[in-house]
C-alpha cells in the first residue's frame, strides 16, 4: 500500500508541530526547514493556509491524496457537519484505533502492526490499515503476538482513559470501539473547516 516515506522531521518543522510523534529535531529547530526557514516572513494566501491545513491532516493520519479525497466525498454524503465527519472517519480507521489504544507509539507503527497481521477485528485477522472500525467492534492483538516487544513497550504507562470512545481490556489486549468520537474529544490540532473551504472552491 502506498504511504509517505519521506523525511518526517522536515514535514513536522513545516507545520511547527510533532505530527508524527515526539521529534528531537523539531524540539531543537522549531522553524520551517530550508536555508531561510528561520527568517521567512512571507504572507501566506488564503488558499495557501487552507492547503497547508489539508496537508497537515493527511500527514497526521498517514493518508495519501486519493484516499483523503475519497474520505472527504464520503463525509459530504454523510449527515452532519462535513469537517467533523471527515475527522470522525479518519479516527475510525483501523490503524488509528490501534494507535489510540496505545498498542503502537505512532500511527506508522500501528499501520505496520495491521499490515503484518498482528491485529484482529472482531476476532478476524485484518491486514487493511484503512478498514473502518464500527461502533461495538473489538480491536485486539492476535493471541500469538501479545508478547511482541513493540506492543509491550507502547502499552507501558499508557493512559487508556484519554479517549472516551474506546474501552480497553488489559486482560485480553483488546479495545472496544464504543461510539464515533465527538469533535471535542479528538485532540488533533486541525482546523477542519479550512479543508472544507478548500475542497469547496
Tell me about this structure.
By secondary structure, the protein is an alpha+beta fold. It has helices spanning 8-15, 24-28, 46-61, 65-77, 82-91, 94-100, 107-115, 149-155, 192-199, and strands at 119-121, 124-125, 138-141, 166-169, 174-177. The protein has a 5-stranded antiparallel beta sheet, covered by helices on one side. Helix 4 (65-77) packs across helix 5 (82-91) and helix 5 crosses helix 9. The mean pLDDT is 88.
Which short descriptors sum up this protein?
Structural Genomics Hypothetical 15.5 Kd Protein In mrcA-pckA Intergenic Region, Chain A, 201 residues, 8% strand, Ribosomal Protein S4 Delta 41, Chain A, domain 1, 9 helices, 2 domains, 5 strands, alpha+beta
Question: What is this structure's SSE topology?
Answer:
Layout: H1 8-15, H2 24-28, H3 46-61, H4 65-77, H5 82-91, H6 94-100, H7 107-115, E1 119-121, E2 124-125, E3 138-141, H8 149-155, E4 166-169, E5 174-177, H9 192-199
Antiparallel strand pairs: 1-2, 1-3, 3-5, 4-5
Helix pairs in contact: 3-9, 4-5, 5-9, 6-7
C-alpha geometry: globular
Instruction: Report the span from N to C terminus.
Output: 30 Å
Tally of DSSP β-strands? 5
Determine the CATH topology of the largest domain: Ribosomal Protein S4 Delta 41, Chain A, domain 1
Radius of gyration: 18 Å
Task: Tell me, rounded to a whole number, the average pLDDT.
Answer: 88
Helix fraction bin: 40-55%
Structural domain count = 2
Q: Decide which structural class fits the backbone.
A: alpha+beta
How many alpha or pi helices? 9
User: Per DSSP, what share of the residues sits in E-state strands of 2 or more residues?
Assistant: 5-15%
Low-confidence stretches: none
Order of helices and strands: HHHHHHHEEEHEEH
Amino acid at each position: 500500500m502506498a504511504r509517505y516515506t519521506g523525511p518526517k522531521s522536515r514535514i513536522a518543522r513545516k507545520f511547527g508541530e510533532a505530527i508524527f510523534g515526539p521529534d528531537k529535531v523539531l524540539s531543537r529547530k522549531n522553524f520551517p526547514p530550508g536555508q531561510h526557514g528561520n527568517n521567512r516572513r512571507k504572507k501566506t494566501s488564503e488558499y495557501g493556509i487552507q492547503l497547508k491545513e489539508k496537508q497537515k491532516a493527511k500527514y497526521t493520519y498517514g493518508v495519501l491524496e486519493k484516499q483523503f479525497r475519497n474520505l472527504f466525498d464520503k463525509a459530504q454524503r454523510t449527515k452532519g457537519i462535513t469537517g467533523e465527519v471527515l475527522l470522525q472517519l479518519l479516527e475510525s480507521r483501523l490503524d488509528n484505533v490501534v494507535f489510540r489504544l496505545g498498542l503502537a507509539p505512532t500511527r506508522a507503527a500501528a499501520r505496520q502492526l495491521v499490515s503484518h497481521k498482528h491485529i484482529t477485528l472482531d476476532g478476524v485477522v485484518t491486514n487493511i490499515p484503512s478498514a473502518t472500525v464500527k461502533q461495538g467492534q473489538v480491536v485486539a492483538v492476535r493471541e500469538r503476538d501479545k508478547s511482541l516487544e513493540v506492543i509491550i513497550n507502547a502499552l507501558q504507562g499508557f493512559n487508556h482513559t484519554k479517549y472516551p470512545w474506546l474501552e480497553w481490556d488489559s486482560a485480553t489486549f483488546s479495545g472496544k470501539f464504543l461510539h464515533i468520537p465527538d469533535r471535542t474529544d479528538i485532540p488533533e490540532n486541525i482546523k477542519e473547516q479550512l479543508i472544507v473551504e478548500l475542497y469547496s472552491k
